Amino acid sequence: MDAAFTEEQHEIRRTLRELLLKRCGPDSVKAAVRTPEGYDRELWGELAGRLGLPGLALPAAYGGVGCGPTELALACEETGRAVLPSPLIATAALAAPLILALGSARQRAGLLPALAGGELTGTLVVPGGQLATALALTGPNDGDWAGGGRAGGIQARPVDGGWRLYGEAGQVLAGHTAEVLVVAAHAGGFTRSRTLLFVVRAESAGKAAGGACEPGAGGAGVPGLLRTRQTVLDETRAQARLELREVPAELLGEGEGEGEAAGAESAVTAALAATGVVAAAALAAEAVGAADAALARTVAHVKEREQFGRPIGSFQAVQHRLADLYVRLQAARSAAYYAAWSAGAAAAGTAGPDGVGEPGAAALALAQALETLRAVAAEAVQLHGGIGFTWEHEAHLYFKRAACDELLLGPVHRLRARAAEEAGLFAGAGGGPAALASEAVDV
C-alpha cells in the first residue's frame, strides 16, 4: 500500500474544502436542512457540475470521473468536516454502485450518466431499518431481511411481464427526494424465496412542498408511492418513510419476470456486500472529517475561554483530554484511509489472489470512526461549557451526527463482531463474536 496521496487526490481535497468553507458554514447548514429538500439544491448542483462529486467513483464511460473509493472517501471527509446535508452518500455510495454492478447495459446507460452529473439523485430502499444488515456490515446478508413473507417488509410479484412492489420502508436516506429508488424486495413467495433489487423511477415533479409524493398526484408521481420525510434527530442526514402499494418496478439486471438467472440472489447479496465495503469506507471518512472539525473548533474555544484569569486550554487536564482525542482521531483516519484503499484494490482486482480487500477492514474502520466521532462530540459539548449544552450551538451538529449514524449503521460492537467474523479471528469458537454480540448490552 502506498500511503502517499497523489497530486490529483490532494487537489480534490483542496478544491472541495475551499468551496465548502465559503458556502457551507453552520448557519448555512441549519438553513439548508429546513428546506423541503433538506439540502441546498444550488450548492449540490455546483458540487455535481463543477466537481463531479456524485460521479467521482463511476467510470468515465458512464459520465463519471473515473476515480475510485479512495477519492470518494477523501471527498466524504471534507463533506463530513462541513456536516454537509446532501444526497451524496445515498447517490454515490449506495444507489450508483448497485446499478453499475447489477444493471443491464440499458439501465446503466439510462441512469448512471444522470446520477453522475447530478441531474438525478438515488438511494437504496431497505425495509425494516435493516440497512447495515443488507450491506453485510453487522452480519451476513443472506437472510430474509427484505421481508421473507412477513408483514413489514417489501414484497415483489410479477405482473404482465413487469413487477409490482407492495410494502413499506423507513429510515431511507434521502428517500423523500431521490428520483431513482433501488428497492430491495422479497420475491417468489415461500417456494422460491429470494431477495432481488428493483428500480423505481420517482419523478421529483410528484413531490409536494412538504416532501411527500401522493399516489398518482396529477399523474406526475408514481402510482401507489407515498413518500414522507421523517423527523430525525440529525437533520443533516435526511430520512424518509416510503409506502409502496402495487408500485410498478423494473428488475435490476438483465432478467425479466420470473425468468431471471438462477444465481440472481447470490449476485444481489454479493453486490450489496461489495457496496457495503465502499459505503462503510466513505462513511468512516465522513465521520473522521466531522470529528476533525469538532476537535478543531473545541481547541479554538479553549484557547479563548478564560477561567481563573487564564485560558482553560492552559490547564493540563484539558490538554490531556484533547491530546487523547487527537490520537484517537488520527487512528480512525488511518483506518478509514486503509479501508478505502482496500476497497479500491478489490474493485481493481489488485487486492490479492482472491480479488477481495482486507476482510473486515471496512466494518472495523466504520466502528472506530463512529466511536471516535461520538467521543469527540461529547467532549466538544462539555468543554464548550454552558453554551455547549444548548441545542442551538454548532457543537450539536456533530453530536447529533454521531448519535444518529451509529443508530443507522451500528451499533459499534456489532460492526466489530462482524469484522472479527470476516477475518476468521474466532473460527470454531462456539458461535463466534456474532453470537456474543447479539447478547451484548451497550453501557
UniProtKB/TrEMBL annotation:
This is Acyl-CoA dehydrogenase. The keyword Oxidoreductase applies. It comes from the Bacteria. Residues 6-119 form the Acyl-CoA dehydrogenase/oxidase N-terminal domain. Pfam families: Acyl-CoA_dh_1, Acyl-CoA_dh_N. Belongs to the acyl-CoA dehydrogenase family. Residues 281-421 form the Acyl-CoA dehydrogenase/oxidase C-terminal domain. PANTHER family: ACYL-COA DEHYDROGENASE (PTHR43884), ACYL-COA DEHYDROGENASE FADE28 (PTHR43884:SF20). InterPro entries: Acyl-CoA_Oxase/DH_mid-dom_sf (IPR046373), AcylCo_DH-like_C (IPR036250), AcylCo_DH/oxidase_C (IPR009075), AcylCoA_DH/ox_N (IPR013786), AcylCoA_DH/ox_N_sf (IPR037069), AcylCoA_DH/oxidase_NM_dom_sf (IPR009100). The lineage of its organism: Bacteria, Bacillati, Actinomycetota, Actinomycetes, Kitasatosporales. Keywords: FAD, Flavoprotein, Oxidoreductase.
